[in-house]
Amino acid sequence: MKAILINIIVSVPIVYILLLLSRIFKELGHLIMYRIMFKDDNYVIKVGFGKRLLKTKRWEINRMPILSKITYGDKFQQGTYKSLLTHIGGGLGTIAYLICLIPLIYLVNKKPEVIAIMNSKILPITILRTIQIVILTLYFSIMPLQIPYFPNGGYISDGVYVINDIMSMKNKKNKKYD
């Protein structure tokens, strides 16, 4: 019983850190594409909701790392191929994060000394479940979703923005030929 309790106590911060890193990588994906496409240095990134843990000029990290948002500067133009690539960048950042987790998966599953230190199989299961949650958040990020009941004005997924960009570019193309 004592070993299980210790493993749970160790697993909770690991899950928290992995989920926080997932949201940070997602926003970094958006940021990298934004900086490449619009060549602008004006942005604010907010990760999570609830009580504020860290705040700088451009970053805010809150207690619950479930939702994240980037606010772009004045140069951002909605409905262009540049904004389309910027919105796709979030999913690419999450995929890059999952690729970065491959060594962690290998370490936990292939190195018996790591499991021996923990004296349980809770750590590998925790990491596996966290990766599954990250994949699920990637799915909900790509899928067009609008949920108005979440904190900070609701949740609008990148999928909605991607569809809006595609439709806007299609409408501009049709107007051009009229």
Topology, pairings included?
Blueprint: H1 2-38, E1 43-55, E2 59-72, H2 81-100, H3 102-110, H4 112-118, H5 122-142, E3 146-147, E4 155-156, H6 158-177
Antiparallel strand pairs: 1-2, 3-4
Helix pairs in contact: 1-2, 1-5, 2-5, 2-6, 3-5
Report on the structure:
The protein has 178 residues and is of the alpha+beta class. The protein is 64% helix and 17% strand. It has helices at residues 2-38, 81-100, 102-110, 112-118, 122-142, 158-177; strands at residues 43-55, 59-72, 146-147, 155-156. The protein has a two-stranded antiparallel sheet. It is elongated and about 70 Å long. The mean pLDDT is 85.
Keywords:
178 residues; 4 strands
Portion of residues within helices: 55-70%
Question: Outline, from the CA principal axes?
Answer: elongated
How many strands in all?
4
For the termini, the CA-CA separation is: 73 Å
The number of distinct helices, counting runs of at least 4 residues, comes to 6
Which percent range describes the beta-strand content? 15-25%
Task: Please write the string of helix (H) and strand (E) elements.
Answer: HEEHHHHEEH
The largest beta-sheet arranges its strands as 1-2
Largest sheet: 2 strands, antiparallel
